[in-house]
Amino acid sequence: MFILGALLVGQTVAFMISSRQRETAIRQTIESEFIARTDALSSMLAEVAPDMRQNVLLAGSVGNSRFWLSDRDPANDARAWYETAQSHLRIPIEDLIRSQGLDGFTMPSGSRPVALGDPDVSDWQPLLSDPDIANARFLHFSGQEGMGIVQPVNDGTWLNAVYYKPAKPGLWGMQSLLSMGITAIILSVIGVFVARQIARPLRSLAISAEALGRGEAIQLSPPRAPEDIRQLYEAFDGMQMRLRRFVDDRTKMLAAIGHDLRTPLTTLRLRAEFVSDPELQSKILATVDEMQAMTEATLSFAKSEATAEETRKIDIAALLGSLCDDLAELGHDVTFQESERISYRCRPDNLKRALRNLIENALRYAGKASLKVSRLPDSIEILVEDDGPGIPEDQFEQVFMPFYRLETSRNRETGGVGLGLSIARAIVRHHGGDIVLSPNDPGLRAVVVLPVG
């Protein structure tokens, strides 16, 4: 569209310039021909007998020009001359011939009367374009569409000549439109071809970037495209490698820290056995158990991150149904609202773990949970609801922080270690989605939003 817009503007400007030059050239040609004809008639009038002059004037007149003689110089009053010229142009040549009693005279073509345009009359000027014509005067009228000449004849009379023919506007002629149409078609074909050559690899790169944002491993090969697009592919591939290396290094470091903590925790547990105070020993062992649970949770999280699960398409409604069935078999009160088949490309084990954490969080605080999944135009929403005590709205974001617990007693049996929601959100965001919490009046509502496409 930009190319066609530029074509239209360029062609319009070119046509306007060309049309103006054409009109100027035509006007100059008509003006030169009219001056030459007037000069020829003046020379002829000087040679013929007075009774033949009217015949010469009628023979020189055509549909758009008139010639007549006057006894004095009419150049003193341009306005009066214009009104006289107007009266001559309004009389058809046929009537002029009959008024002279020349019935046998050959009729010239174009004998219709001529109606002048607006009376915009310039002043008389010397005829500088042809200095050989002595004492001639020239003027324009009606926006330079008409012109007049007065020239003395050798016997003291004055030859008057008038011409008027408005030019037809020819800016958007059939030839111009055809030329622009052919050019537009050629440019459109070339533009579409070039745009497709650029857009196809860019569209493929956008799909790859979306997949990378969901944690998928992308294999890119530079396309047959302009050099800038190839460089963009290479830069994207390098960025992907650096991101994966960074994530792998972070995960390995986290797993190593969690693994190395096992040894000092075991040592602390053994040393606590030698504490003689039973109450102090109980507190130390409780703290060691809590640290042990946090370490195991960290190792579990790091292990799941380090495991490269293959991305594949599944029925997410069936995944939720099987998860609810597993929890129900363990004696939990979980209900799932049946849904139509919803295909989704994901890492099923990771997504199942995130959903299980949300459901177990609802079961821990409310004793039961209900699930529902729905397909929206641009996303999939999984709703997990409970009727428990809920969470204060000002802590909706804080509960997703690692090791953050609302339960102040730090009891693992009632509050866990504080990694469940963190792991769930990390997995969902790794799929390009998010988890949003809202009040359920009473209870809590967690909505898992997964992008489609």
Question: How would you describe this protein?
Answer:
This protein has helices at 2-47, 53-60, 78-90, 93-99, 174-213, 227-260, 262-272, 278-306, 316-329, 348-366, 412-415, 420-430; strands at residues 65-70, 125-126, 137-141, 146-152, 158-164, 312-315, 333-336, 343-346, 368-375, 379-385, 434-439, 444-451. Helix 10 packs antiparallel against helix 12 (420-430). It has 453 residues and is an alpha+beta fold. Mean pLDDT is 80; it is low at 107-111. Strand 9 and strand 10 (379-385) form a beta hairpin. A 5-stranded antiparallel beta sheet has the order 1-5-4-3-2, with helices on both faces. Strands 7-9-10-12-11 form a 5-stranded mixed beta sheet. The protein has 12 helices and 12 strands.
Please give the largest β-sheet.
Answer: 5 strands, antiparallel
Continuous helix count: 12
Average pLDDT metric: 80
Strand content: 15-25%
Give the radius of gyration.
Answer: 49 Å
- Residue stretches low in confidence (pLDDT < 50, at least 5 long) are 107-111
- How far is it from the N-terminal to the C-terminal residue, by CA? 28 Å
Could you say which overall geometry the principal axes of the C-alpha atoms support? Answer: rod-shaped
**Order of strands, widest sheet:** 1-5-4-3-2
What class would the helix/strand composition place it in? alpha+beta
DSSP strand tally = 12
Order of helices and strands: HHEHHEEEEHHHHEHEEHEEHHEE
How much helix, percentage-wise, in residues? 40-55%
